């Protein structure tokens, strides 16, 4: 299930708020005017856009909007529910055989689970199932990396174009030392381009790319659990043993809850006896 990842917009807002607070503290509300310079904006954003266009094809650039959108989304993974799903599949497979799972997985939403279980039902060797499912994980990781690479490159190019703007401003300033009225605007270009470029890289592009990488790693982790579950079901493992095996992937808090519930159940049985 995908929800709004509030930490992405909140982080952006907090970062900008601290910068605004620093400006207001030292220069008041009118101090913002000193940090807005159209030539500096043109140098950084124009240079950044041109560098991105040179680096990537149109097909790759079309992925940028969905990639940025994904950094504002949060996908929930119910690991405890995932373990329960495989325990249920294992119990039915032991009672009725693997062929009975073909109807069981119709109610499962995750296509990766469906694919693994159907491969097991078809009698594919475990090693082959692992290879097929790992190949899909590698393909997923490669797709995510390609989409993320645009943000990573933007994070590299933004400070570089900030430095180019700084060099332009310094050259203009040095060539017009005889005219004091031009020193201020040229110095503004020199300093503000570096500020814009660094701000874009370290507040927007690099953090978003890092978040997307973390999301990819989490998704791969969940798929590795699914592979373990599929192989466990196919090999006919005892549901309790499979549950114990998959439970090691759960957070400690959830494992403690399960252990506590199991102990309570055992205690209730002893009391009844």
Structure, explained:
The protein is 79% helix and 2% strand. The protein has helices at residues 7-27, 38-55, 58-61, 64-70, 79-96, 101-104, 111-121, 126-175, 183-234, 239-247, 252-272, and strands at 2-4, 73-75. The chain contains eleven helices and two strands; from the N terminus they run E-H-H-H-H-E-H-H-H-H-H-H-H. The protein has a two-stranded antiparallel sheet with strand order 1-2. It is elongated. By secondary structure, the protein is mainly α.
Short summary of the structure?
Belongs to the MotA family. By secondary structure, the protein is mostly helical.
Measured between the Cα atoms of the first and last residue, the distance is 43 Å
Query: How do the strands line up in the largest sheet?
Result: 1-2
Q: Please report the total strand number as a whole number.
A: 2
List the uncertain runs.
263-273
Major sheet attributes = 2 strands, antiparallel
Strand content: under 5%
| Class from secondary-structure proportions | mainly alpha
Averaging pLDDT over every residue, what do you get? Answer: 85
Form type: elongated
In DSSP terms (H or I, runs of 4 or more residues), the helix count works out at 11
């Amino acid at each position: 299930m995908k929800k709004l990842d509030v930490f992405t917009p909140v982080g952006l807002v907090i970062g900008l708020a601290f910068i605004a607070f620093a400006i207001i503290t030292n220069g008041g509300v009118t101090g913002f005017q000193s940090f807005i310079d159209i030539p500096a904006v043109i140098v950084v954003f124009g240079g950044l856009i041109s560098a991105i266009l040179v680096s990537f094809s149109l097909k790759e650039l079309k992925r940028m909007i969905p990639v940025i959108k994904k950094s504002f989304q949060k996908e929930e993974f119910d690991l405890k529910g995932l373990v329960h799903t495989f325990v249920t599949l294992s119990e039915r497979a032991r009672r009725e055989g693997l062929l009975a799972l073909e109807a069981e997985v119709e109610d499962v939403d995750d296509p990766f689970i469906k694919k693994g279980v159907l491969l097991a039902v078809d009698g594919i060797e475990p090693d082959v199932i692992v290879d097929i499912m790992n190949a899909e994980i590698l393909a997923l990781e490669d797709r995510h990396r390609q989409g993320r690479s645009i943000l990573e490159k933007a994070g590299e190019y933004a400070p570089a174009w900030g430095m180019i703007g700084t060099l332009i401003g310094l050259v203009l300033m040095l060539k017009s030392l005889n005219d004091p009225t031009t020193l201020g605007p040229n110095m503004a270009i020199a300093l503000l381009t570096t500020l814009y470029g660094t701000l874009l890289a370290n507040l927007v592009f690099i953090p978003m790319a890092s978040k997307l990488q973390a999301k990819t790693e989490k998704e791969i982790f969940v798929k590795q659990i699914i592979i373990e579950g599929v192989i466990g079901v196919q090999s006919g493992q005892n549901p309790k043993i499979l549950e114990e095996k998959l439970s090691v992937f759960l957070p400690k808090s959830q494992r403690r809850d399960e252990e506590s519930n199991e102990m309570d159940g055992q205690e209730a049985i002893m009391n009844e006896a």
